[in-house]
Design goal:
Elements: H1 2-21, E1 31-36, H2 46-49, E2 52-58, E3 64-71, E4 80-83, E5 88-96, E6 102-105, E7 117-120, E8 130-132, E9 152-155, E10 161-166, E11 168-169, E12 171-179, E13 193-200, E14 202-204, E15 213-219, E16 221-223, E17 226-237, E18 246-250, E19 262-263, H3 264-270, E20 278-288, E21 291-297, H4 301-304
Parallel strand pairs: 1-10, 12-20
Antiparallel strand pairs: 1-4, 2-3, 2-5, 5-8, 5-9, 6-7, 7-14, 8-11, 12-17, 13-15, 13-18, 16-17, 18-19, 20-21
């Protein structure tokens, strides 16, 4: 009788220990992924910065296996999410904040790691995009002939595996501030547009920007605290600046250039931003005895009565 009691008790003890050990073990999930977004002080900003996460799974030959998309509400209090995969060895890439304005391309059966990429569809991308693994991915060869040897996870058949991945920001955000538009003869009183020319718009799956370029056009908004200040902001892959990248101020219809173009590379070299992930450019237009003068500087937040990123 005692032996029978022990046999009946064992499954119950195993179930209790499983629940105590891991909150996801009562399901068929076998991979629990914890994502972190650590700031410079070591604080996790995942809850504050992340809206959704796309998790892309590859096999050891870098072939696409499947993808998962999770809204931030799917993550528990420790920023963990669970999923089910056939036991085996996998390589994992995560993209966070991929919205309606950006899209993961090539994620389909038969796709390979080197063929997948993320494409920006619009300059209005909402929240910046983040990528994991945060460390550099090893690459061999040249061009598209690289071997992905990044984040790897081994899933045995008999237990839940929990891993942690760190996200890092891959978007560069440039905020444009404009003062004194009323001093321009071509200004029609309507919200002007800002054009960013020849900007990168695609990432490969190592988070490096691809060679393609496109123009972004954003309609400015009047700042709520300063009616004379017009603002616009855009995100793009953080590629090295080149001489053909430029900022133009256009009229509200986008067909008349109000000022000379600003060479982004030259301006950044002369005005190195403190934060290379996000910085501002202030256009100040004033009348002089000889005409109109346009100066381009780093924003002085006290003078223009806004905070960095306050667009």
């Amino acid at each position: 009788m005692k032996r029978y009691f022990v046999i009946l008790l064992l499954p119950l003890l195993l179930l209790i220990s499983c629940i105590w050990e891991h909150p996801f073990c009562e399901t068929d999930n076998n991979l629990v992924l914890r994502l972190r977004l650590l700031d410079t002080n070591g604080n996790d900003q995942f809850t504050n910065k992340i809206l959704s996460v796309d998790i892309i799974i590859f096999d050891t030959r870098n072939n696409f296996v499947r993808s998962f998309r999770f809204d931030k509400t799917a993550f528990d209090s420790k920023n963990r999410v669970a999923m089910s995969l056939v036991p085996g060895i996998y390589r994992i890439i995560c993209w966070a904040n991929v919205t309606d304005h950006s899209k993961i391309m090539g994620a389909k059966q038969g796709g390979n790691f080197k063929e997948l990429y993320l494409e920006e569809r619009s300059s209005d991308t909402g929240s910046p995009v983040y990528y994991a693994p945060a460390g550099n991915i090893s690459r061999s060869g040249s061009g598209d002939d690289f071997d992905y040897t990044g984040f790897t996870v081994i899933l045995p058949a008999d237990k839940i595996t929990e891993k942690t991945m760190d996200l890092r920001r891959v978007h560069r955000t440039i905020n444009i501030y404009i003062l004194g538009l009323e001093n321009l003869a071509g200004f029609d009183g309507l919200n002007p547009k800002v054009q960013a020319k020849n900007m990168p718009f695609q990432y490969d799956f190592t988070s490096s920007s691809k060679p393609g370029r496109r123009d972004y056009i954003m309609t400015t908004q009047q700042n709520t605290r300063s009616a004379l200040l017009y603002t616009a902001g855009f995100h793009s892959p953080a590629a090295a600046f080149s001489d053909d990248m430029a900022i133009h101020l256009l009229n509200s219809s986008g067909n008349i250039q109000l000022t000379d173009g600003l060479n982004l590379k030259a301006w950044v070299e002369e005005n190195p931003p403190q934060d290379t992930c996000e910085f501002g450019i202030l256009f100040t237009i004033t009348k002089t005895s000889t005409g109109v003068c346009v100066t381009v500087t780093k924003p002085d937040w006290e003078d223009i009565d806004v905070k960095p990123g306050d667009i």
